[in-house]
């Protein structure tokens, strides 16, 4: 069988990472969560007081970009790689609603995108990779052999994210989560640099009414038709 690149894009909380992890495990491929990288940059900006509800010091963030080192380290117990920011495991810290509130603003900055895209292309240069994000099939790997574009209604997605955050013990309301999902959708689809759009040659999957297993089987069939 041949090694391919699988690009999975779509709106937030469509279950991209769940599908991508399942696929990577099944195929013995590397999985890369690019959202985690943007989240880590947002966390860095928060830690350095460069971003708050009413201000964002982009210029200062740009001067500090070279000080941001992002790495994925495989956790054998969890079975997937965790995000490290300057040597520190930030896997939990990047999943809070606060980071979710700032990440799309940070992801609008072209210099941030250029830095992360370069690192993502490097990680995928030998193929055998499943990468999820917003611009993987359009910008990072326009030649990917398989591109999936995932969608689901905003209410379905907010409910999923809300359940996830509750389980982790975060005290959030459903309305707060829905508002965040809608705001990120808006910013992600309207930014100038690499907006979230479906690549022309992507396969669209609306999973509002699909179980995880049904979705996985459908995508696995697509993979097997190629490899
Ligand atoms: O995938 P996740 O929801 O964790 O991504 C967080 C945010 O990072 C997105 O809402 C988007 O603003 C940004 N992002 C991006 N390009 C990617 C991955 C994520 O702009 N490839």
From TrEMBL:
Signal peptide coordinates: none
Subcellular location, record wording: Cytoplasm
Record's catalysed reaction(s): CMP + ATP = CDP + ADP; dCMP + ATP = dCDP + ADP
UniProt record similarity statement: Belongs to the cytidylate kinase family. Type 1 subfamily.
Protein name: Cytidylate kinase
Record keywords: ATP-binding, Cytoplasm, Kinase, Nucleotide-binding, Transferase
Residues reported to bind ATP: 10-18
Species for this entry: Flavobacterium keumense
GO molecular function: kinase activity
InterPro entries: Cytidylate_kin (IPR003136), Cytidylate_kinase_dom (IPR011994), P-loop_NTPase (IPR027417)
Lineage start: Bacteria, Pseudomonadati, Bacteroidota, Flavobacteriia, Flavobacteriales
